[in-house]
Design goal:
It contains 13 helices and 15 strands. With 345 residues, it is α+β, with helices and mostly antiparallel strands. The protein folds into 3 domains: 111 residues, no CATH class; 70 residues, 2-Layer Sandwich (Dna Ligase, domain 1); 114 residues, D-amino Acid Aminotransferase, Chain A, domain 1, CATH 3.30.470. Helix 1 crosses helix 13.
């Protein structure tokens, strides 16, 4: 069995020291190896009967992917292409985006999960609307595509949002997220015009939401689901600069409430079918924030802020967290590949 891992992360370094001596130097970036490479190398060490193909962004091609039985995207997807993280010449610009999307969408690329599932998770507008219909708590959102500033301000006033944020659909790691005061924008609408002028080159749609004050104070609960089963959760708090914290979750009531919401969230995601059989994704991450409508800090006021696919390295591969993420995911991907092969993937 041959498994391909598309890598390319720039900021999630593996903090263990057991893989450095066995990892070829060509997989190093800035004298280190990243979590996505660490997962692939762990499989190589733990499963000698499995052939591992580590694929960097510049080497992605349909011909390369076709040679593997299954390919998992860990480090370079269509969102990375949009924000040029990393920049890859052959995948640059709109033509490059279409090229990458066509490769990943091709049935013979053997990408798992398939693009239909991935595109749902990459499109925050789509999944927020789906969650609202399914009575899953999410913060009210205005979707902006025509950048008509007076109309946008009118809608914000109607919602009575004194402070709000704007973030691009398709952005990642906080790129393009900015905070605004309604009174400032009413006095100087060019604040919004300048924002859309700056970011409209890369993105065509934006989400406008009330600023949730609990986000900075209480952070996010990032919950990891392996094969749609709860596996682990951490609390992250980002107050800017070097003040980024990853902590264990002490409040059991909050944890249980987020698990309950998370289970409903997973049920709302598109079903993945392989030759007529439903197959669960290897890993999904659900992020929860308090407090909806800026209410009190209670478990019942947590809501879904984000859904991510196969992205957990920097949150569990942390000196404060003892969860063996790399080994767990190495085992998970091998089992998933075996399941897919048995179904004629």
């Amino acid at each position: 069995m041959k498994i391909g891992f598309i890598v390319g992360k720039n900021d999630e370094y593996y903090i263990g020291d057991d893989l450095y001596d066995v990892t070829p130097k060509k997989y190093y970036i800035n004298e280190g190896i990243h979590v996505d490479v660490a997962v692939a190398m762990t499989i190589k060490q733990s499963y000698p009967d499995v052939t591992v193909d580590v694929i960097f962004p510049k080497d992605i091609s349909l011909q390369r992917l076709k040679k593997n039985n299954v390919n998992f995207i860990l480090g370079y997807d269509c969102i990375n292409q949009i924000v040029e993280d990393p920049y890859v010449k052959k995948f640059s610009g709109k033509k490059g985006y279409q090229l990458l999307k066509n490769i990943y969408s091709h049935k013979q690329s053997k990408i798992f999960p398939p693009m239909e599932f991935l595109e749902f998770i990459w499109d925050k507008e789509k999944y927020l609307k789906t969650f609202q219909r399914r009575k899953i708590p999410v913060t009210p959102t205005i979707v902006v595509s025509n950048f008509h500033i007076p109309k946008l301000l009118q809608m914000i006033q109607k919602n009575n949002w004194k402070q709000f944020i704007i973030k691009p659909i398709g952005g990642t790691v906080g790129i393009g997220v900015e905070k605004f005061l309604l009174k400032d924008c009413l006095q100087n609408p060019s604040l919004l015009s300048e924002y859309f002028d700056e970011h409209g080159t890369f993105y065509s749609k934006f989400l406008v939401q009330e600023l949730i004050k609990g986000f900075q104070k209480y952070g996010e609960i990032k919950m990891f689901w392996i094969q749609n089963q709860y596996s682990y959760a951490v609390r992250t708090i980002d107050r800017g600069g070097d003040d980024y914290q990853v902590k264990m979750i002490r409040d059991k009531k909050t944890l249980e409430e987020c698990k309950r919401i998370g289970e409903k969230t997973l049920q709302a995601l598109p079903k993945i079918k392989v030759n007529g059989k439903v197959v669960k994704p290897a890993l999904v991450r659900t992020d929860f924030t308090c407090c909806l409508y800026n209410k009190k800090h209670l478990p019942s006021n947590y809501f879904v802020n984000e859904v991510e696919h196969q992205d957990a390295g920097s949150y569990v591969n942390n000196e404060n967290i003892k969860y063996p993420y790399v080994q767990v995911m190495a085992d998970t991907y091998v089992k998933k590949a075996e399941e897919l092969l048995s179904l004629g993937f």
